[in-house]
What we know:
By secondary structure, the chain is an alpha+beta fold. Helices cover about 20% and strands about 35% of the residues. The strands form three sheets. It has a nine-stranded antiparallel β-sheet, with no helix packed on it. The radius of gyration is 26 Å and the shape is globular.
Amino acid sequence: MKKILRHFRCEIRAKGEEYPLFKHFWIERPSLHQKSIVVHALLDSKSVAGAYRLDIHPGSPTWMDIDVILFPRTDIQCVGLAPLTSMFMHSPMDAPDKADYRSAVHDSEALAMTRGNGEQIWRPLNNPHKLQVSSFVDENPLGFGLIQSHRRLDHYQDLEAKYHRRPSAWVEPLGNWGKGRVELIEIAPDSEANDNIVVFWRPEEGLKKGRRFSCSYRLTWPDDAPVRGDQILVELQQELAAIPPPKKTPALRGLITNPALFDWHIAQLPNTTDPAPVFHAPTVTAEWKMRHAQSPEQLEKWLEPAETMALLSRSDCLEQLNAFAENMGKAT
């Protein structure tokens, strides 16, 4: 898994960057029926000590709840909570400086954010010629992460690195994190073997010497950025509005209409109370809809224009479709 989670970073003025180390780990023995594993970790450095509890849930996607308690030994202004690192060399939007037969070389292609007010931000990553730092000021963020959304091998053309299988990483704060900013650091890379992307949450007030600091968050490793149910409905509405009105035929004038699939799609949405809800659009063929429709009206609501055209190309379906159309004509 190339995308790296560091859990904590800090910069001490006049001393540069400091990465505290996890020096000890304790693993709780799981019960017979337990579906997760709990790991405790001790963080330590010259500037800060900390205790971590990681409740890890394997699955698709894997996710973990992380509780953090930090004890700073000095004032630390620049603190990086839940930092992620990754690699970005080039993409179709950012051509490489040197010739490369691969159209894209990256572990992540964008920084995604859900701000505290619900605004969605998608920031494509770059390969800068010099150090570049971008800040996104926010209050009580809902989530941020590094996303790898393209999942086709031909997009990367790399059988060895298999960039199309690199996971995304999504940080979801549990509780209010207050004021601060998501900070993105892009470093000029010299090799795809080295990480050159860093993103983390930087609290506005930093850490104060002798003052305990605590926070919690959920880390998920999905194939894409988590999508909320209301956002899915907006996207469905946009897709349906973009479908051009189909040409009507006399025999099937009742069937060739714009689809009305909202109720059906809403019923397929996952339970939004799940720890890491992921929406997978169901694949329902036109033939399945025709076999299971209980009435002409129901079939009319289920079928999309393209699905109706697909059924018309099959001789074994024409008789039933014509019967449906005739019944609708009699009803009107």
